[in-house]
Amino acid sequence: MLPLLLQSESHIPLYVQLRDQLRALVHSGELRNGDRIPASRELASQLGVHRTTVATAYAELEAEGLIEGHVGRGTFICGAAARQFSPAPRSNGNGGSARWESLFADERGDENLSRLMPEVPAGALAFTCARPSEEFFPVEEFRRCANAVLRREGRRILQLGASDGYESLRRAVVAWFREEGQTVGPDQLLITDGGQQAIDLISKAFLRAGDSVAIENPAYPGAISILAGARVRTLAVPVEADPARTGNVGLDLDALENLLLQNRLKFIFITPDFHNPTGTSLPLSQRRRLLEIAARYQVPIIEDSIYARTRLRGTELPSLRSLDTHGNVIQIDSFSKISFPGLRVGWCIGAETAIERLRLVKLLTDLHTDQFSQATLAEFIERGHLKRHLARMKKVHRSRLEAMEEALEKHMPEGTTWTRPEGGMTVWVTLPAGFDAGDLLIHARERGIYFVPGRYFYLQNPQPNTLRLGFASLDEKSIARGVQSFCDVLKAELRKRQRGVRDEFRGRVALI
Amino acid sequence: MLPLLLQSESHIPLYVQLRDQLRALVHSGELRNGDRIPASRELASQLGVHRTTVATAYAELEAEGLIEGHVGRGTFICGAAARQFSPAPRSNGNGGSARWESLFADERGDENLSRLMPEVPAGALAFTCARPSEEFFPVEEFRRCANAVLRREGRRILQLGASDGYESLRRAVVAWFREEGQTVGPDQLLITDGGQQAIDLISKAFLRAGDSVAIENPAYPGAISILAGARVRTLAVPVEADPARTGNVGLDLDALENLLLQNRLKFIFITPDFHNPTGTSLPLSQRRRLLEIAARYQVPIIEDSIYARTRLRGTELPSLRSLDTHGNVIQIDSFSKISFPGLRVGWCIGAETAIERLRLVKLLTDLHTDQFSQATLAEFIERGHLKRHLARMKKVHRSRLEAMEEALEKHMPEGTTWTRPEGGMTVWVTLPAGFDAGDLLIHARERGIYFVPGRYFYLQNPQPNTLRLGFASLDEKSIARGVQSFCDVLKAELRKRQRGVRDEFRGRVALI
Lengths: 512, 512
Fold this sequence. Notes:
Two copies of one chain form a homodimer. Chain A is 43% helix and 14% strand. By secondary structure, chain A is an alpha/beta fold. The first copy, chain A, folds into three domains: 5-91, Winged helix-like DNA-binding domain superfamily/Winged helix DNA-binding domain (Arc Repressor Mutant, subunit A), CATH 1.10.10.10; 125-136 and 388-511, Aspartate Aminotransferase, domain 1; 139-384, Type I PLP-dependent aspartate aminotransferase-like (Major domain) (Aspartate Aminotransferase, domain 2, 3-Layer(aba) Sandwich), CATH 3.40.640. In chain A, strand 3 and strand 4 form a beta hairpin. The radius of gyration of chain A is 25 Å and the shape is globular. Chains A and B meet through helix 4, helix 5, helix 7, helix 8 and helix 13 of A and helix 4, helix 5, helix 7, helix 8 and helix 13 of B.
C-alpha cells in the first residue's frame, strides 16, 4: 500500500496531487527502481477516484521518465536516483545481468547507500548545495600553477609516487598548519582523495561489521552511508539545532555518555565546526567535555574539520585535535570546501600508528592520490593564492548568509525557526511540528525552488519538519527571491493544512 | 627461533652473513616492526659464534635504521616496510598511540596487506618495476592539453561532478573502444582512480568476509592484498610459467574446474594478457574454455586488462569481455601502464546492473575521480597524443625486452628458465629447484642489482626459486649490464651452494 493522501476539496487537481506524491515517494527513496506500482484501474479503485485521474498522473510520470510500463508485466519505477547518468537496471543485450544482481541480492541497508539529493534542473533556484560557487574559482591562477609544476617536475608528477602524498603538497599542508600555530609531524599526515575517502579509509582500517560507532543525528549522509555499507552499527548522538525548543545548540553530551555506558564504541564521529546539515558549532566548553569523556572511556574521536576554515563571523574555536592531549583524535580535512571540489584532494592527521595503518590501506585502495592535482594545489598554496581565495570567498559567503538571514527574517511565517551558523554553507530550518518538508518540496519545485528535506540527514528519529538551505551557491538577489518564493509556498501550504484539518473532519480524505 | 644459517667455511665474514640474513628476514616480512630479536649474547651462544660477531652485525643494522635498542627492554625491528615515508611505530609526543594499535591488534592476515617490494636506492639497477619509463613522457603535449581544458571548461572541471566520470573522458574511452571494434554502452562504463581502485570497488560492491574467489597463483600482490583485507578466501589457480617443466604456459583450467566443483565461488579473477608477474598470456583456446566454464558454473569473471594494450609482438588476442556472450565479465583497465601512472585514472566496463552498483559504491568511496586529470587525459586522447605515445612506447619496450632476452640467453647459467612474454613489462625467471631468490637478492643488492623475489606474488605454495625481472624502466645498456651482473652473482651463488653442500657434510653449519 502506498502512503498516498488525496484531498478532493483542494484547488489542486487530483491527478496533480497524485503525480506529485508519487514523485516525492521516488525522490525520498520510498519507491525505488524496479518497484512495481499498482495498475491504474486498481489504484483508482483503492483511492476512490476515476481511472482517468490515475492514468493521467501515470502518463505525466512516464513522460518524465520516472515510470515505465511493460506489456503484460505492469508498471515500474525506473527513473529514481541519478537518472541522468544511469538508467534503470534492465537486462542488457548480453543478458546475464540477473547474475550480477544475485551477488548483492542479500544486501541489507542498501537504502542507506543511496541517500541522494533531489535532482535539480538547470535554471532552478537550488538551495540544495553545500559547495563553493564556481563563479569565483581563480581558474587563471590555477592554470599558471599547473603550467609551473609540469614545466618544473612534470615527469615526477606523472610517474607513480608515494602513498602518503606528493612531497610538495605534504610540505605545504604542514607549513599551513604551522602558520596556524599547529604542529603536524611528517608521519602524522596522509593525503587522501578528499574528505569522503578519508572517512572510507578510516572505516576500512579500523571498523568491522558489527562494530559500533557514535555519530551525530542528523549527520552528513556520506558518512552515514559509508558506515552502513561497512555494516557498522551507528548510534545517534542528538544534535540540538532548534534553540526555540531547548535553548541549546550543540551536541547532547549526556546522551553520548549514556551510549558509552551501554556500548563498546570503536569511535565517536563528530563534525565540531559548522556541522552539516545544521550549521551549528560545538562551543569550547562542549569540546573540552567531549575530549574528557572520550579519554575517560578510551574511545578515539574522528573529527571532521571539512568546514572549519569556512568561518564567516564570530570567534575562532580550537579544533578537537589541537585541544587533545591524549593522541586520541584523527582529524579529517579537505580542499573541497575552500577551493576546488572537482579535485579530489584532502587529508587526515593523527597519531603515527593510526596514520601508518591508514597509509597501508590507502596504498591498497588506490596506490596514492592523483599527483597532478596534488602538485598544482601545492603550488597554489605556496604562491599565496589559496589564502587570498579563501579571504575573498569568506566575504562572498558572509554576504550571502546575511542575505539569506535577512530574507528569512522578513518572510518566514510564525512557528518556524532556523539556525544562525557562524560559517559553513547551510542553514537548518525547523517547520511547525507535524509539517513534512518532503511534501513542501513537491510544491516548491513547481515554483522552481529546491532544498533538501531534513530526513536525508537522519540516521534515526527523522524530524520530517526540518530542511536544509544552502546559501553558498546562489547570489544575494537569487537568495532573496528564492527565500521569498519558498516562504510563499510554505505559507500557502500552512493555510491549506489548516483547511485540510477541517476537510478531514468532513470525511473527504482518501487515505490508502 | 630465527631461521639463520651461518657458514663458517665461507669467504664471507660471519657478521656479514648474519647481517644480510637478518635484513632478508625483515624484507621478506618474516621479521616485522616491533618484533624483538635476541640479545647479542644470547644469539651468539645459540649460533656458536663470538659475541662480537653478533654485536657488529647489530651495529650495522642499527646504523641502517633497521633495528633499534631500548635500554632494559631489548632490541626490536623498526625499519621494515616503506621506511622512507613512515618510521617505526613509536609512541608520539601525545602518547595514546597504543589505543590506535588496539583497534587493529586483532587483525589476521595483515602480513598480506603489506606485500611490499624491496626498497631501491637511487642509482641502482632496478629490475623491480612494472611501470612505463618517465623519460619518454610527452609532458609538453600533456601541459598543452591541461591548458586547453582549463581555458575551455576550467570551472566545470574544478567543481564537483558525476560519480561515473567526467563526460569528455567517458566519450573518449567509448570512442577508443569503438575504434577497436568494441561496443561500450554509456551505462557500462565507470571511471575509477586507476585499476587498483577498480579492484577495491569490486571487492566492496560484491564480496563479503568469508566469500571465496579464484585467482591465479602467482598473481598481482595488490589484488591478493585487497582480497585478504576484505577477509575473502582466495583459492589458487596455478599459472604454469615454466615450459621446461610441463611444456605448458598458461592457466591450469582443470584445477579451476576442480575448485568450482568443490567451492561456491563469487568470482574468478584473471589477468589474461601479459599476466603480472609471469608475463604470460592466455591462448585463445584457453580463453574460450575459461568463458565456457564460467558460464556453466554461473560464476562471473573479473578480467584485469591493465596490460592488454602493451602487446609488443605476436598476434592480438580478443579480450574475455569481447568473447563473452553472457554479460558475465567485468573488465578492469587503466591508463597507468600506457601513459601516466601518477594520474590515478582507470575504468571498468561491465553489465549495467553491475556498473550501477559499482557507481554507487564509488560515490560513497570518494564521490568521483579527480576531474582535472580526467579532462586533461580526454584532451590527450582526442588530440591523438595517446595513440602516438603508445606506438612510441611499444618500440621502446620491444627493444628493451629484446635486450633483456639477449642478455639472458648469453649469461644465464644452465638449469634456469624464463618466460618469453609478448608484451607487458616483466620476465619471470625460474632458478634451479631449491635455490632461494630471496637469498640471491641479498648478494645482488651488494652489486647494486635489484629484482623482486617470486614469493611476493604467491598466495600459496610459494616457489622460492622464482623471481621477476622488469624490463620497461631501464635502457638497453643498463639492461645488458644489469643482467650480466645478475648472472655473475647467480653463478657465484650456485658455486657457493655446491661448496655449501660439501660443508654441511663436514658438520660446520650452525642452524638455529
